[in-house]
Structure formats: structure tokens, C-alpha cells
Design brief:
- This protein is 39% helix and 14% strand.
- 50% of the residues are buried.
- By secondary structure, the protein is an alpha/beta fold.
- It has helices at residues 12-18, 24-27, 45-58, 74-87, 98-110, 125-133, 148-151, 174-181, 194-197, 231-244, 250-282, 308-314, 344-349, 366-381; strands at 91-95, 116-119, 139-142, 156-162, 186-189, 207-211, 225-229, 287-291, 299-304, 319-320, 330-332, 356-360.
- The protein has two domains: 9-262, Type I PLP-dependent aspartate aminotransferase-like (Major domain) (Aspartate Aminotransferase, domain 2, 3-Layer(aba) Sandwich), CATH 3.40.640.10; 264-381, Aspartate Aminotransferase, domain 1, CATH 3.90.1150.10.
- The radius of gyration is 22 Å and the shape is globular.
Length: 390
């Protein structure tokens, strides 16, 4: 695999198509190979012992042929190389899901005795739950951005933010937050923006997390997570991945690498439609508020005057479902689904109201999407506004 450090700088659109694939012509193939092996033959057990000792000591990528699927996989490594280049980091480590990625980060820092996390709400509901529940031995202090510096302790391992945030699309000043972090690594969840719209490392973040299930895959048919970071943290994450077994399946790595090739095109097209729909919703008297990021994107959040459950029940082209980032448009009621697991008071204080709907705009014709939304809003307007998240 070509060393990213010596590659001539290229545009993001070009990197999306070619990163991780530079050696294909030399292999005599054009499409990326899919390696489904779980184990690999080796007749040099002494040499394998030395390589495994080196991995155990440093967590560095294994040089030479693969050994076992829980250590590494050639197809997954290609995806990691490509994502690191798109995010502008030294390395990346892929795992089984976005939550596995966050868990690996918490375990990696916790293994150094740094179990305290400073976090800003809102976050994805399961991320909030993982931190609040202390399932991995972490302790969290929730703050607003202005309180980050004061909340940092000697055992603080990470500062965690998500911008634009799930589900309100609230945006944070990453440069200011990175400054407030001092020497504590800033972990930025970049799932909604993707490197097409935002590269957190350029703004001061140390670690960038993606639920690759969303826009990186882009077609609603693959689960995965990935962390883009420096080489030192990547080595620790690989050791966690090996020990916990949260590996990314090679087929998922193949699909995610393929998804990256169209990521810039998909994001720009979906963002154009999302911005148009956000504008129409903002002018609609049946809508109480609209949230759309300054940096753009394919996500729109809006609060209806009527019953949001009636909007969910009335859509026909748009799919009422969890998740986001697919080529088709999805809509959901966060207070009932994605953020139901968050304490109601915390949910509301973070701006996740009972009337809020989150829509992931896909690649359909924007007029067809508006026709569907208009009909659903008519249905909601005929019923009283809700007063609870039930």
C-alpha cells in the first residue's frame, strides 16, 4: 500500500475515488479485491511469534502477509487508508459499528487510567447512554462549550462533541473547543458532516469518529464504524479491537470503500435538496421551527405545530425509519426512537423537543419529496399538538 505521506496532494473528490486503490494496477486488477479469509497459512512460526510480539507491544500494523482476521484484513485496511486520507489524519481504525468505535476510544483512554470524559449535549442517543450509564467504567461531566476548560481533571481522557449534533443539528466552534481542551484530546463525531463538509482535525480535533453506517456507506446496507486519528492512538485502538473482537467484516469494508467513491457527489446532491426543503419548511405556517446547519448538509430537523406522530404516519415516499445517510430519504421522531434512551429532562434541556422531527434527505427528486412532506404536514395540522414524548 502506498504511503500517504509521499502522495502528491489531490482534491477530496479524487481521493474519494482513488485512495486505498493505488496498487491495483500493479496487482493486475481494476476493482478492489474482497478478501474473506479468516486465517492465513504460515510456515514460519518463529517469524509469526516475533510479529505478534511486536503487535502486542506497539499495536502497529502487521508488516507482511495477514495472520488472522481479528488482527487485520487487507480489504478493511484499504478502507482505513482511504478514510484517513479524506479526513487528513495519519491513520484510521475501522470497527463493527459507530458505537464500537466510541467504545474502543473510551477503552483505549481508560486503559491509561484516563476514565473521565467531558461531553457536550446533544449527542447521538446511544452515545449519551453509553457515557451516562458508565458501562465501560467511564465517568462523564456534561457541560456547555463554555464550561469545558473548568471541567477538565487530571484523569480526563477525552472531550467529546458532535457537530452538527444529532438530532438538533446544533453547531459548535471546534477551534474554540480545541483551545479549551488544552492537552486533552478532542474527539469530534463527524458523522453528519463527513469530510466533504468538515475536517475536524484541521480545526484542532485530535480524533474523528464516524458511524460509517451512515453517509460513508451511503446505501443503508452496511454497519460499520471508523476512527481517524494519529498513528499513536490508532495503535492503541488496534490493540483494543484485537482484544475485544469488535472487527469490521471484510464485506463491510469492501462496501464502505465503494461508498467513499461516491461520497462527495452524494453529499452535494443531497445537501442541495435539503437546503431547499429547509427553506420551504421555514416559510410554512404548519412548522414551528427549522434547524439547518450553516455548513450545509443533508440533514434537516424541524418542529411541527401539529402532531409529529401524524407526520410519521402519513409519509409515503419518505421512509419512517431510524438511521440516516442513505440514498433514500428517512424521517424519524427522536424523542420516541433515537433519543428515547436519554433521560427526558436531559433530552429536553439539550433541545430535543417532543415536536422535533429529524429528516435525512436522499437523492430523490426534491419536488416529489416536498409533495410527500406537504401531505404529511396537512395530516398533522388536523390534529392537536402533542404535549409529551410518548
Amino acid at each position: 500500500m502506498e504511503n500517504p505521506a509521499v502522495i502528491t496532494p489531490r482534491s477530496l473528490a479524487t481521493e474519494a475515488v482513488h485512495a486505498g486503490r493505488e496498487d491495483l494496477a500493479g496487482l493486475g486488477v481494476h476493482a478492489v479485491p474482497l478478501d474473506l479469509s479468516t486465517t492465513y497459512p504460515s510456515y514460519d512460526s518463529r517469524g509469526e511469534a516475533a510479529r505478534l510480539d511486536a503487535f502486542a507491544a506497539t499495536g502497529a500494523r502487521l508488516e507482511g502477509p495477514p495472520v488472522y482476521g481479528r488482527l487485520d484484513n487487507p480489504t478493511v485496511s484499504r478502507f482505513e487508508t482511504a478514510l484517513a486520507r479524506l479526513e487528513g489524519t495519519q491513520d484510521a481504525v475501522a470497527v463493527a459499528s459507530g458505537m464500537a468505535a466510541l467504545s474502543a476510544c473510551l477503552l483505549a483512554r481508560g486503559s491509561l487510567g484516563l476514565r473521565h470524559v467531558v461531553a457536550v449535549r446533544p449527542l447521538y442517543g446511544c452515545s449519551d447512554h453509553l457515557l451516562s450509564g458508565g458501562l465501560l467504567g467511564t465517568e462523564v461531566t456534561w457541560v456547555d462549550p463554555a464550561g469545558i476548560a473548568a471541567a477538565i481533571r487530571p484523569d480526563t481522557g477525552l472531550v467529546l462533541v458532535e457537530t452538527p449534533a444529532n438530532p438538533t443539528l446544533a453547531e459548535l466552534d471546534l477551534r474554540a473547543i480545541a483551545h479549551a481542551c488544552g492537552t486533552v484530546p478532542l474527539l469530534a463525531d463527524n458523522t453528519f458532516a463527513t469530510p466533504v463538509l468538515q475536517r475536524p482535525v484541521q480545526l484542532g480535533a485530535s480524533v474523528v469518529l464516524h458511524s460509517a453506517t451512515k453517509y460513508l456507506g451511503g446505501h443503508g446496507d452496511v454497519l460499520g464504524g471508523v476512527v481517524a486519528c494519529d498513528e499513536e492512538f490508532a495503535r492503541r485502538l488496534r490493540q483494543v479491537r484485537f482484544a475485544t473482537g469488535g472487527v469490521l467484516h471484510p464485506l463491510a469494508g469492501y462496501l464502505l470503500l465503494r461508498g467513499l467513491s461516491t461520497l462527495p457527489v452524494r453529499m452535494r446532491a443531497a445537501s442541495q435538496s435539503a437546503a431547499l426543503l429547509a427553506g420551504r419548511l421555514a416559510d410554512d405556517p404548519r412548522v414551528a421551527a427549522v434547524h439547518y446547519p450553516r455548513i450545509g448538509g443533508a440533514m434537516v430537523a424541524f418542529e411541527v405545530c401539529g402532531d409529529p406522530h401524524e407526520v410519521i404516519a402519513a409519509v409515503r415516499l419518505i421512509t419512517p425509519a431510524v438511521s440516516l445517510g442513505s440514498v433514500d430519504t428517512l424521517i424519524q421522531h427522536p424523542a420516541s426512537i433515537s433519543h428515547r434512551i436519554v433521560d427526558e429532562r436531559d433530552r429536553r434541556s439539550a433541545g430535543v423537543s417532543d415536536r422535533l422531527l429529524r429528516m435525512s434527505v436522499g437523492l430523490e427528486d426534491v419536488e416529489d419529496l416536498w409533495h410527500d412532506l406537504d401531505g404529511a404536514l396537512r395530516a398533522a395540522a388536523r390534529t392537536p399538538a402533542v404535549t409529551s414524548g410518548s
